Amino acid sequence: MSAPRAVIAEDEPLLRRELKAALRELWPDLDVVAEAADGVEASRALDEHAPQILFLDVEMPGMSGLEVARRASRRCHVVFVTAYDKYAVAAFEQGAIDYVLKPFSMARLSDSVARLRERLSHAPADLDGLLERLLARSEAPQYLRWVTAAQGTSLSIITVEEVCYFKAENKYTLVLTAEGEALMRMPIKDLIEQVDPKMFWQIHRATLVNVNAIAGVSRDFRGHLAVRLKERKETLPVSEPYSHLFRQM
Questions:
Q1: What is the reported pLDDT for 239?
Q2: Range of the domain at 181
Q3: Beta partners for 26?
């Protein structure tokens, strides 16, 4: 019996490499015949390679993952790769073969591989009804669940829950966690539009703080506010335009 063929469609190069390496370890016989960095490439790979399995990022440029999934319906087994739980849970509960959340967990991916092995003998699922529901849900705002940032010469994936605060650093953004700091190649003005405003408060033109990381607020003799953090020693100044956020604290 020939090795099952798979395509990985993921626009983040680091995550694509990690997923491929994890699959190589968990399923040595799986033949990853193509990788795609956007929806157009994924659609082309689907036609050219006729894979049995498609690992498909929900959010991709060019053509969305949901559009690609519509073309893959009944043609191959689709595993949704997503940073958004609501997509994943809906897909899993409504009959799509499986999902993995970013950043990847080897334990979760191992479970997915086991299910894929079992289902390869069955016809791929009809995803049309599911995709209609997912497209309707996708109209709601989607926020970052992780960021890719440089620590020295290596790249790290940091979940937003780990972040104490973000701070502007020229054209880049510093990511401060309890363990240290890393640098994102994104200006903070762009980042502000991508994080959940209920989780990250802008307290200064150069600072976004994780609400869950706040230990308290202090006021100096001039009346200026500063945020104290649970897991870092420094305090963060609060600009006057943002002081209203702390009126009830």
A1: 94
A2: 146-246
A3: none
Task: Give the whole-angstrom CA distance, residue 21 versus residue 94.
Answer: 29
Structural contact between residues 54 and 78, judged by C-beta atoms closer than 8 angstroms: yes
What is the average per-residue pLDDT within 67-71?
89
Please, which residues bridge with residue 227 across strands? 217, 236
Would you state the pLDDT for residue 138?
Answer: 59
CB 100 within 8 Å of CB 114: no
d(CA 42, CA 115): 23
Question: What is the C-alpha separation between 42 and 54, in angstroms, rounded?
Answer: 9
pLDDT tens-digit map of 198-225:
999 999 999 999 999 999 999 988 889 9
Q: What is the pLDDT of residues 88-132, one digit of tens each?
A: 566 565 555 688 888 888 998 999 999 999 999 999 988 877 777
For residues 82 and 100, what is the distance between their CA atoms, to the nearest angstrom?
Answer: 6
Q: What is the DSSP letter of 28?
A: T
Instruction: Cis check for the bond before 103: say yes or no (omega within 30 of 0).
Output: yes
131 and 153 belong to one structural domain? no
How far is Cα 30 from Cα 57, in angstroms, rounded to an integer?
19
Instruction: Using the 3D structure, point to which of 137, 163, 181 is the last residue of a domain.
Output: 137
Q: Are 93 and 46 in contact (CB under 8 A)?
A: no
